[in-house]
Amino acid sequence: MDPLKALADAERKPYWLDSPARPEPRQRLFGHTTADLVVVGGGFSGLWTALMAKERDPSLDVVLLEGRRIGWAATGRNGGFCMATLTHGLANGLERWPEEIDRLERMGVENLDEIERTLERYGVDCSFERTGELHVATEEWQLDGLNEHLDLISDLGLDYLPLDQEQVRAEVNSPTYLGGLWERSGCAMLDPARLAWGLREACLRLGVRVHERTPVRSMSDDGTTMTLRTPHGSVGARHVALGTGVFPPLLRRLRHFVVPVYDYVLMTEPLTEAQLDAVGWRNRQGVGDSGNQFHYYRLTDDNRILWGGYDAVYYNGGLVKPEYDQRDETFVKLAQHFYDTFPQLDGVRFTHRWGGVIDTCSRFSAFYGQAHGGRLVYAAGYTGMGVGATRFGANVMLDLLSGKPTDRTELRMVKEKPIPFPPEPVRSGVIQFTRWSIAQADQHQGRRNLWLRALDRMGLGFDS
Ligand SMILES: Cc1cc2nc3c(=O)[nH]c(=O)nc-3n(C[C@H](O)[C@H](O)[C@H](O)COP(=O)(O)OP(=O)(O)OC[C@H]3O[C@@H](n4cnc5c(N)ncnc54)[C@H](O)[C@@H]3O)c2cc1C
Protein backbone atom coordinates (compact mmCIF):
# COMPACT_ATOMS: atom_id res chain seq x y z
CA MET A 1 0.00 0.00 0.00
CA ASP A 2 1.17 3.51 -0.72
CA PRO A 3 2.55 4.76 2.63
CA LEU A 4 1.08 8.20 2.07
CA LYS A 5 -2.39 6.74 1.65
CA ALA A 6 -1.93 4.46 4.65
CA LEU A 7 -1.00 7.47 6.78
CA ALA A 8 -3.62 9.84 5.41
CA ASP A 9 -6.03 9.53 8.36
CA ALA A 10 -3.44 8.92 11.07
CA GLU A 11 -3.91 11.30 13.98
CA ARG A 12 -0.88 13.36 14.92
CA LYS A 13 -0.84 12.43 18.59
CA PRO A 14 0.46 9.63 20.82
CA TYR A 15 -1.93 6.69 20.69
CA TRP A 16 -1.51 5.84 24.40
CA LEU A 17 -2.42 9.34 25.58
CA ASP A 18 -5.43 9.53 23.25
CA SER A 19 -7.56 7.52 25.66
CA PRO A 20 -10.75 8.04 27.68
CA ALA A 21 -8.82 6.58 30.63
CA ARG A 22 -6.67 9.73 30.82
CA PRO A 23 -7.46 11.31 34.20
CA GLU A 24 -8.20 14.98 34.75
CA PRO A 25 -5.08 16.87 35.82
CA ARG A 26 -4.55 17.50 39.52
CA GLN A 27 -4.71 21.06 40.74
CA ARG A 28 -1.82 23.48 40.24
CA LEU A 29 0.19 24.47 43.28
CA PHE A 30 -1.02 27.78 44.71
CA GLY A 31 0.79 29.51 47.58
CA HIS A 32 3.64 28.32 49.77
CA THR A 33 3.85 24.86 51.30
CA THR A 34 6.44 22.65 52.94
CA ALA A 35 7.25 18.96 52.58
CA ASP A 36 9.88 16.41 53.56
CA LEU A 37 10.56 15.47 49.94
CA VAL A 38 9.72 17.24 46.68
CA VAL A 39 9.85 15.14 43.55
CA VAL A 40 10.11 17.11 40.30
CA GLY A 41 8.73 15.41 37.18
CA GLY A 42 5.63 13.30 36.66
CA GLY A 43 7.09 10.69 34.31
CA PHE A 44 8.00 7.17 35.42
CA SER A 45 11.10 8.44 37.18
CA GLY A 46 9.24 10.90 39.42
CA LEU A 47 6.21 8.66 39.95
CA TRP A 48 8.26 5.67 41.13
CA THR A 49 10.30 7.92 43.40
CA ALA A 50 7.24 9.44 45.07
CA LEU A 51 5.49 6.09 45.41
CA MET A 52 8.44 4.21 46.87
CA ALA A 53 9.31 7.10 49.21
CA LYS A 54 5.86 6.66 50.78
CA GLU A 55 6.17 2.87 50.78
CA ARG A 56 9.50 3.12 52.62
CA ASP A 57 8.16 5.63 55.16
CA PRO A 58 4.39 6.31 55.16
CA SER A 59 4.85 9.26 57.54
CA LEU A 60 6.96 11.16 54.98
CA ASP A 61 5.26 14.24 53.50
CA VAL A 62 5.85 13.99 49.74
CA VAL A 63 4.93 16.53 47.05
CA LEU A 64 5.23 15.76 43.32
CA LEU A 65 5.39 18.69 40.90
CA GLU A 66 4.77 18.08 37.19
CA GLY A 67 5.15 20.94 34.70
CA ARG A 68 2.43 19.71 32.35
CA ARG A 69 0.42 16.48 32.71
CA ILE A 70 1.43 13.17 34.30
CA GLY A 71 3.08 10.96 31.69
CA TRP A 72 2.72 13.39 28.76
CA ALA A 73 6.39 13.15 27.70
CA ALA A 74 8.53 10.06 26.95
CA THR A 75 6.62 8.14 29.61
CA GLY A 76 3.33 8.28 27.67
CA ARG A 77 4.81 7.96 24.16
CA ASN A 78 7.09 4.96 24.25
CA GLY A 79 6.94 1.44 22.83
CA GLY A 80 5.90 -0.03 26.17
CA PHE A 81 8.77 -2.55 26.25
CA CYS A 82 9.38 -2.88 29.99
CA MET A 83 12.80 -4.49 30.16
CA ALA A 84 14.79 -6.05 32.94
CA THR A 85 18.07 -4.65 31.67
CA LEU A 86 19.49 -1.74 33.67
CA THR A 87 22.38 -1.22 31.28
CA HIS A 88 20.69 -0.66 27.89
CA GLY A 89 21.21 -4.31 27.05
CA LEU A 90 23.59 -6.98 28.18
CA ALA A 91 26.36 -6.21 25.69
CA ASN A 92 26.61 -2.56 26.79
CA GLY A 93 26.61 -3.56 30.45
CA LEU A 94 29.22 -6.26 29.94
CA GLU A 95 31.47 -3.90 28.02
CA ARG A 96 31.38 -1.24 30.74
CA TRP A 97 30.96 -3.08 34.04
CA PRO A 98 32.08 -6.69 33.42
CA GLU A 99 32.79 -7.41 37.08
CA GLU A 100 29.27 -6.29 38.04
CA ILE A 101 27.24 -7.72 35.22
CA ASP A 102 25.98 -10.75 37.16
CA ARG A 103 24.67 -8.48 39.90
CA LEU A 104 23.26 -5.94 37.45
CA GLU A 105 21.38 -8.64 35.54
CA ARG A 106 20.01 -10.13 38.77
CA MET A 107 18.96 -6.70 40.09
CA GLY A 108 17.28 -5.96 36.77
CA VAL A 109 15.18 -9.13 36.89
CA GLU A 110 14.27 -8.40 40.53
CA ASN A 111 13.26 -4.89 39.49
CA LEU A 112 10.97 -6.25 36.76
CA ASP A 113 9.51 -8.80 39.22
CA GLU A 114 8.84 -5.96 41.66
CA ILE A 115 7.12 -3.91 38.96
CA GLU A 116 4.82 -6.87 38.32
CA ARG A 117 4.09 -7.23 42.05
CA THR A 118 3.42 -3.48 42.41
CA LEU A 119 0.83 -3.64 39.63
CA GLU A 120 -0.92 -6.47 41.45
CA ARG A 121 -0.70 -4.69 44.81
CA TYR A 122 -2.37 -1.51 43.57
CA GLY A 123 -4.59 -3.13 40.94
CA VAL A 124 -2.97 -1.19 38.09
CA ASP A 125 -4.38 -2.42 34.78
CA CYS A 126 -1.85 -1.55 32.08
CA SER A 127 -2.14 -4.72 29.97
CA PHE A 128 1.14 -6.06 31.40
CA GLU A 129 2.15 -9.19 29.45
CA ARG A 130 5.51 -10.80 30.23
CA THR A 131 6.03 -12.18 26.77
CA GLY A 132 9.74 -11.43 26.36
CA GLU A 133 11.47 -9.90 23.37
CA LEU A 134 12.31 -11.50 20.06
CA HIS A 135 15.54 -10.19 18.54
CA VAL A 136 15.46 -10.86 14.80
CA ALA A 137 18.19 -10.75 12.14
CA THR A 138 17.17 -9.43 8.74
CA GLU A 139 20.68 -9.44 7.20
CA GLU A 140 23.40 -12.10 7.26
CA TRP A 141 25.81 -9.93 9.28
CA GLN A 142 23.17 -9.52 11.98
CA LEU A 143 23.15 -13.30 12.50
CA ASP A 144 26.81 -13.06 13.60
CA GLY A 145 25.76 -10.43 16.13
CA LEU A 146 23.01 -12.67 17.51
CA ASN A 147 25.43 -15.60 17.77
CA GLU A 148 27.94 -13.44 19.65
CA HIS A 149 25.11 -12.45 21.97
CA LEU A 150 24.28 -16.10 22.53
CA ASP A 151 27.90 -16.81 23.56
CA LEU A 152 27.74 -13.96 26.09
CA ILE A 153 24.51 -15.10 27.69
CA SER A 154 25.22 -18.81 27.89
CA ASP A 155 27.70 -18.10 30.73
CA LEU A 156 25.14 -16.05 32.63
CA GLY A 157 22.41 -18.72 32.57
CA LEU A 158 19.76 -16.37 31.14
CA ASP A 159 16.53 -17.58 29.57
CA TYR A 160 17.18 -17.13 25.83
CA LEU A 161 15.98 -19.37 23.01
CA PRO A 162 17.90 -19.30 19.70
CA LEU A 163 15.67 -19.70 16.63
CA ASP A 164 16.65 -20.57 13.06
CA GLN A 165 14.92 -19.05 10.07
CA GLU A 166 12.03 -21.50 10.06
CA GLN A 167 11.52 -21.30 13.82
CA VAL A 168 11.59 -17.52 13.98
CA ARG A 169 9.07 -17.26 11.11
CA ALA A 170 6.87 -19.74 12.95
CA GLU A 171 6.77 -17.22 15.81
CA VAL A 172 6.24 -14.09 13.71
CA ASN A 173 5.89 -14.52 10.00
CA SER A 174 8.04 -12.10 8.06
CA PRO A 175 9.88 -13.01 4.84
CA THR A 176 12.69 -10.69 5.98
CA TYR A 177 13.71 -12.82 8.98
CA LEU A 178 16.85 -14.97 8.80
CA GLY A 179 17.04 -16.04 12.44
CA GLY A 180 16.28 -14.87 15.93
CA LEU A 181 16.83 -15.01 19.63
CA TRP A 182 13.90 -15.01 22.02
CA GLU A 183 14.72 -13.42 25.37
CA ARG A 184 11.87 -15.04 27.21
CA SER A 185 11.38 -13.52 30.64
CA GLY A 186 13.45 -10.33 30.64
CA CYS A 187 10.83 -8.09 29.07
CA ALA A 188 7.12 -7.33 29.40
CA MET A 189 4.80 -5.44 27.09
CA LEU A 190 2.54 -2.83 28.66
CA ASP A 191 0.49 0.29 28.02
CA PRO A 192 2.83 3.01 29.33
CA ALA A 193 0.23 5.74 29.77
CA ARG A 194 -2.05 3.48 31.80
CA LEU A 195 0.97 2.49 33.90
CA ALA A 196 1.74 6.17 34.58
CA TRP A 197 -1.88 6.96 35.48
CA GLY A 198 -2.02 3.86 37.70
CA LEU A 199 1.15 4.96 39.50
CA ARG A 200 -0.36 8.44 39.94
CA GLU A 201 -3.44 6.84 41.50
CA ALA A 202 -1.28 4.70 43.80
CA CYS A 203 0.70 7.80 44.85
CA LEU A 204 -2.53 9.63 45.68
CA ARG A 205 -3.81 6.69 47.71
CA LEU A 206 -0.65 6.75 49.81
CA GLY A 207 -1.03 10.48 50.38
CA VAL A 208 1.44 12.02 47.91
CA ARG A 209 0.34 15.56 47.03
CA VAL A 210 0.46 15.69 43.23
CA HIS A 211 0.33 19.02 41.40
CA GLU A 212 0.14 19.09 37.61
CA ARG A 213 0.64 22.11 35.33
CA THR A 214 3.18 23.26 37.91
CA PRO A 215 6.60 23.77 36.34
CA VAL A 216 9.45 24.45 38.74
CA ARG A 217 11.11 27.62 37.48
CA SER A 218 13.97 27.93 39.97
CA MET A 219 15.52 26.39 43.01
CA SER A 220 17.49 27.78 45.95
CA ASP A 221 19.18 26.33 48.99
CA ASP A 222 19.77 28.05 52.36
CA GLY A 223 21.90 25.22 53.71
CA THR A 224 19.09 23.26 55.36
CA THR A 225 16.02 23.82 53.18
CA MET A 226 15.65 23.69 49.41
CA THR A 227 13.02 26.07 48.00
CA LEU A 228 11.41 25.39 44.62
CA ARG A 229 9.51 28.17 42.90
CA THR A 230 6.60 27.61 40.54
CA PRO A 231 4.44 30.20 38.69
CA HIS A 232 1.85 30.45 41.50
CA GLY A 233 3.61 29.05 44.54
CA SER A 234 6.65 27.50 46.17
CA VAL A 235 7.67 24.51 48.26
CA GLY A 236 10.29 24.36 50.97
CA ALA A 237 11.70 20.89 51.63
CA ARG A 238 14.57 19.06 53.23
CA HIS A 239 15.05 16.85 50.18
CA VAL A 240 14.54 17.12 46.41
CA ALA A 241 14.56 14.35 43.78
CA LEU A 242 14.80 15.29 40.10
CA GLY A 243 13.11 13.03 37.55
CA THR A 244 13.00 15.64 34.82
CA GLY A 245 14.35 13.54 31.94
CA VAL A 246 15.77 15.47 29.04
CA PHE A 247 14.14 18.81 29.83
CA PRO A 248 16.26 21.88 30.66
CA PRO A 249 17.67 20.78 33.99
CA LEU A 250 17.27 22.66 37.27
CA LEU A 251 20.78 21.47 38.09
CA ARG A 252 23.01 23.04 35.43
CA ARG A 253 25.68 20.36 35.43
CA LEU A 254 23.24 17.82 33.97
CA ARG A 255 23.09 19.57 30.61
CA HIS A 256 26.61 18.32 29.78
CA PHE A 257 25.53 14.70 30.07
CA VAL A 258 22.18 14.41 28.29
CA VAL A 259 21.13 15.26 24.72
CA PRO A 260 17.58 15.16 23.28
CA VAL A 261 17.13 12.52 20.57
CA TYR A 262 13.78 12.21 18.79
CA ASP A 263 12.26 8.82 18.09
CA TYR A 264 9.11 8.22 16.00
CA VAL A 265 6.26 5.73 16.17
CA LEU A 266 3.24 4.57 14.16
CA MET A 267 0.18 2.66 15.37
CA THR A 268 -2.00 0.58 13.05
CA GLU A 269 -5.70 -0.03 13.25
CA PRO A 270 -6.61 -3.30 15.08
CA LEU A 271 -5.81 -6.36 12.98
CA THR A 272 -8.65 -8.67 12.02
CA GLU A 273 -8.39 -12.36 12.99
CA ALA A 274 -7.43 -13.19 9.40
CA GLN A 275 -4.67 -10.56 9.39
CA LEU A 276 -3.39 -11.82 12.73
CA ASP A 277 -3.38 -15.37 11.40
CA ALA A 278 -1.26 -14.18 8.51
CA VAL A 279 1.50 -13.02 10.90
CA GLY A 280 1.15 -15.68 13.59
CA TRP A 281 2.59 -13.88 16.62
CA ARG A 282 0.61 -16.07 19.03
CA ASN A 283 3.23 -15.59 21.77
CA ARG A 284 2.87 -11.81 21.47
CA GLN A 285 6.55 -10.97 22.04
CA GLY A 286 7.96 -7.53 21.55
CA VAL A 287 10.20 -7.61 18.45
CA GLY A 288 13.38 -5.73 17.68
CA ASP A 289 15.51 -6.08 14.58
CA SER A 290 19.25 -6.05 14.89
CA GLY A 291 20.64 -3.24 12.74
CA ASN A 292 22.31 -0.26 14.35
CA GLN A 293 19.25 1.62 13.16
CA PHE A 294 16.60 -0.72 14.46
CA HIS A 295 12.81 -1.02 14.49
CA TYR A 296 10.86 -2.11 17.55
CA TYR A 297 7.32 -3.40 17.26
CA ARG A 298 4.64 -5.17 19.24
CA LEU A 299 0.96 -5.97 19.54
CA THR A 300 -1.40 -4.00 21.76
CA ASP A 301 -4.18 -5.58 23.81
CA ASP A 302 -6.61 -4.98 20.92
CA ASN A 303 -4.14 -6.35 18.35
CA ARG A 304 -2.90 -3.19 16.74
CA ILE A 305 0.78 -3.11 15.80
CA LEU A 306 2.95 -0.39 17.26
CA TRP A 307 5.84 0.20 14.87
CA GLY A 308 8.67 2.55 15.84
CA GLY A 309 12.34 3.40 15.76
CA TYR A 310 14.92 3.44 12.94
CA ASP A 311 15.58 7.17 12.59
CA ALA A 312 16.94 8.58 15.83
CA VAL A 313 17.06 12.29 15.13
CA TYR A 314 19.18 14.92 16.82
CA TYR A 315 18.17 18.44 15.81
CA ASN A 316 21.16 20.78 15.66
CA GLY A 317 21.22 23.03 18.69
CA GLY A 318 19.83 20.30 20.93
CA LEU A 319 16.50 21.92 21.81
CA VAL A 320 13.24 20.24 22.83
CA LYS A 321 10.44 21.71 20.69
CA PRO A 322 6.81 20.61 20.14
CA GLU A 323 7.22 20.82 16.33
CA TYR A 324 9.87 18.09 16.47
CA ASP A 325 7.17 15.62 17.62
CA GLN A 326 6.12 15.21 13.99
CA ARG A 327 8.42 14.21 11.11
CA ASP A 328 6.64 13.18 7.93
CA GLU A 329 9.81 11.99 6.22
CA THR A 330 10.31 9.45 9.02
CA PHE A 331 6.64 8.42 9.14
CA VAL A 332 6.66 7.55 5.43
CA LYS A 333 9.90 5.61 5.82
CA LEU A 334 8.52 3.71 8.81
CA ALA A 335 5.29 2.85 6.94
CA GLN A 336 7.30 1.55 3.97
CA HIS A 337 9.46 -0.59 6.29
CA PHE A 338 6.28 -1.95 7.91
CA TYR A 339 4.94 -3.23 4.57
CA ASP A 340 8.39 -4.59 3.61
CA THR A 341 8.38 -6.59 6.83
CA PHE A 342 4.76 -7.72 6.62
CA PRO A 343 3.71 -7.74 2.94
CA GLN A 344 0.70 -9.86 3.95
CA LEU A 345 -0.62 -6.81 5.86
CA ASP A 346 -0.84 -4.66 2.76
CA GLY A 347 -3.99 -2.61 3.22
CA VAL A 348 -3.69 -2.20 6.99
CA ARG A 349 -3.82 1.51 7.77
CA PHE A 350 -2.29 3.65 10.50
CA THR A 351 -4.44 5.47 13.05
CA HIS A 352 -1.74 7.41 14.96
CA ARG A 353 1.74 8.87 14.34
CA TRP A 354 3.88 10.64 16.89
CA GLY A 355 7.34 11.35 18.16
CA GLY A 356 8.94 11.68 21.54
CA VAL A 357 12.21 12.78 23.01
CA ILE A 358 14.78 10.50 24.55
CA ASP A 359 17.40 11.48 27.14
CA THR A 360 20.50 10.05 25.50
CA CYS A 361 23.81 9.95 27.37
CA SER A 362 27.16 8.71 26.09
CA ARG A 363 27.05 5.44 28.05
CA PHE A 364 23.41 4.72 27.01
CA SER A 365 22.28 3.83 30.51
CA ALA A 366 21.16 6.05 33.34
CA PHE A 367 23.51 7.86 35.69
CA TYR A 368 22.79 9.03 39.21
CA GLY A 369 24.09 11.62 41.59
CA GLN A 370 23.58 14.10 44.37
CA ALA A 371 24.20 17.80 44.93
CA HIS A 372 23.54 20.48 47.55
CA GLY A 373 25.21 18.52 50.33
CA GLY A 374 23.18 15.39 49.56
CA ARG A 375 19.84 17.24 49.84
CA LEU A 376 19.18 16.88 46.10
CA VAL A 377 19.41 13.70 44.03
CA TYR A 378 18.87 12.95 40.35
CA ALA A 379 18.70 10.13 37.82
CA ALA A 380 18.76 10.72 34.06
CA GLY A 381 20.10 9.38 30.76
CA TYR A 382 17.93 6.28 30.30
CA THR A 383 18.53 6.51 26.51
CA GLY A 384 15.36 4.87 25.26
CA MET A 385 15.21 2.09 27.84
CA GLY A 386 13.65 3.65 30.89
CA VAL A 387 10.25 2.03 31.21
CA GLY A 388 11.57 -0.56 33.68
CA ALA A 389 14.91 0.97 34.66
CA THR A 390 13.36 4.18 36.06
CA ARG A 391 12.07 2.15 39.01
CA PHE A 392 15.62 1.04 39.79
CA GLY A 393 16.81 4.65 39.35
CA ALA A 394 14.12 5.83 41.76
CA ASN A 395 15.37 3.36 44.34
CA VAL A 396 18.92 4.62 43.83
CA MET A 397 17.75 8.20 44.42
CA LEU A 398 15.97 7.21 47.64
CA ASP A 399 19.02 5.21 48.79
CA LEU A 400 21.23 8.25 48.20
CA LEU A 401 18.87 10.50 50.14
CA SER A 402 18.88 8.06 53.05
CA GLY A 403 22.64 8.58 53.33
CA LYS A 404 23.22 4.86 53.99
CA PRO A 405 25.18 2.74 51.49
CA THR A 406 23.19 -0.07 49.86
CA ASP A 407 23.90 -2.80 47.30
CA ARG A 408 22.73 -0.34 44.68
CA THR A 409 24.76 2.72 45.73
CA GLU A 410 27.94 0.64 45.96
CA LEU A 411 27.78 -0.32 42.28
CA ARG A 412 30.46 1.17 40.06
CA MET A 413 27.68 1.77 37.53
CA VAL A 414 25.97 4.01 40.09
CA LYS A 415 29.10 5.81 41.26
CA GLU A 416 30.49 6.65 37.81
CA LYS A 417 29.28 9.39 35.48
CA PRO A 418 29.18 9.20 31.68
CA ILE A 419 31.65 11.16 29.59
CA PRO A 420 30.08 14.58 28.90
CA PHE A 421 29.15 15.68 25.37
CA PRO A 422 31.18 18.58 23.94
CA PRO A 423 29.43 21.98 23.89
CA GLU A 424 27.54 23.24 20.81
CA PRO A 425 28.21 23.71 17.94
CA VAL A 426 30.82 20.92 18.12
CA ARG A 427 28.18 18.70 19.76
CA SER A 428 25.89 18.86 16.70
CA GLY A 429 28.78 18.17 14.31
CA VAL A 430 30.00 15.16 16.28
CA ILE A 431 26.52 13.67 16.72
CA GLN A 432 25.51 14.12 13.06
CA PHE A 433 28.75 12.57 11.84
CA THR A 434 28.24 9.65 14.22
CA ARG A 435 24.64 9.18 13.00
CA TRP A 436 25.87 9.20 9.39
CA SER A 437 28.57 6.63 10.22
CA ILE A 438 26.00 4.37 11.89
CA ALA A 439 23.75 4.49 8.81
CA GLN A 440 26.78 3.69 6.63
CA ALA A 441 27.64 0.69 8.82
CA ASP A 442 24.13 -0.72 8.32
CA GLN A 443 24.52 -0.37 4.56
CA HIS A 444 27.90 -2.14 4.56
CA GLN A 445 27.25 -5.39 6.43
CA GLY A 446 27.69 -3.76 9.82
CA ARG A 447 31.30 -2.67 9.09
CA ARG A 448 32.18 0.20 11.40
CA ASN A 449 34.33 3.03 10.05
CA LEU A 450 37.40 4.47 11.76
CA TRP A 451 35.33 7.04 13.63
CA LEU A 452 32.93 4.49 15.14
CA ARG A 453 35.82 2.20 16.05
CA ALA A 454 37.58 5.09 17.78
CA LEU A 455 34.40 5.87 19.73
CA ASP A 456 34.00 2.16 20.59
CA ARG A 457 37.53 2.13 22.00
CA MET A 458 36.72 5.13 24.19
CA GLY A 459 33.46 3.57 25.33
CA LEU A 460 31.48 6.36 23.68
CA GLY A 461 28.58 6.33 21.30
CA PHE A 462 25.20 7.49 20.18
CA ASP A 463 22.02 5.46 20.54
CA SER A 464 18.30 5.73 21.12
C1 LIG B 1 9.24 7.23 21.15
C2 LIG B 1 9.86 6.61 22.37
C3 LIG B 1 9.88 5.22 22.49
C4 LIG B 1 10.44 4.63 23.63
N1 LIG B 1 10.33 3.28 23.79
C5 LIG B 1 10.76 2.71 24.94
C6 LIG B 1 10.52 1.35 25.21
O1 LIG B 1 9.82 0.66 24.46
N2 LIG B 1 11.04 0.82 26.35
C7 LIG B 1 11.75 1.57 27.23
O2 LIG B 1 12.22 1.03 28.24
N3 LIG B 1 11.92 2.90 27.05
C8 LIG B 1 11.43 3.48 25.94
N4 LIG B 1 11.55 4.83 25.77
C9 LIG B 1 12.19 5.62 26.84
C10 LIG B 1 11.27 5.81 28.03
O3 LIG B 1 10.03 6.31 27.61
C11 LIG B 1 11.93 6.78 29.01
O4 LIG B 1 13.22 6.29 29.36
C12 LIG B 1 11.16 7.02 30.28
O5 LIG B 1 9.82 7.30 30.03
C13 LIG B 1 11.80 8.17 31.04
O6 LIG B 1 10.95 8.60 32.08
P1 LIG B 1 11.30 9.94 32.85
O7 LIG B 1 10.33 10.07 33.95
O8 LIG B 1 12.75 9.93 33.20
O9 LIG B 1 11.15 11.10 31.77
P2 LIG B 1 9.86 11.81 31.11
O10 LIG B 1 8.80 10.84 30.77
O11 LIG B 1 10.41 12.66 30.02
O12 LIG B 1 9.30 12.70 32.27
C14 LIG B 1 9.95 13.86 32.73
C15 LIG B 1 8.87 14.77 33.28
O13 LIG B 1 9.49 15.85 33.99
C16 LIG B 1 8.71 16.99 33.79
N5 LIG B 1 9.55 18.17 34.05
C17 LIG B 1 10.72 18.49 33.46
N6 LIG B 1 11.22 19.63 33.98
C18 LIG B 1 10.32 20.04 34.91
C19 LIG B 1 10.26 21.16 35.78
N7 LIG B 1 11.22 22.11 35.81
N8 LIG B 1 9.18 21.28 36.61
C20 LIG B 1 8.20 20.34 36.63
N9 LIG B 1 8.21 19.27 35.80
C21 LIG B 1 9.26 19.11 34.97
C22 LIG B 1 8.26 16.90 32.33
O14 LIG B 1 7.13 17.71 32.09
C23 LIG B 1 8.01 15.40 32.19
O15 LIG B 1 6.66 15.06 32.43
C24 LIG B 1 11.03 5.45 24.64
C25 LIG B 1 11.02 6.84 24.51
C26 LIG B 1 10.43 7.41 23.39
C27 LIG B 1 10.41 8.92 23.29
UniProtKB/TrEMBL annotation:
The FAD dependent oxidoreductase domain, residue ranges: 36-394
One Pfam family in the UniProt entry: DAO
Protein name: FAD-dependent oxidoreductase
Species: Nonomuraea monospora
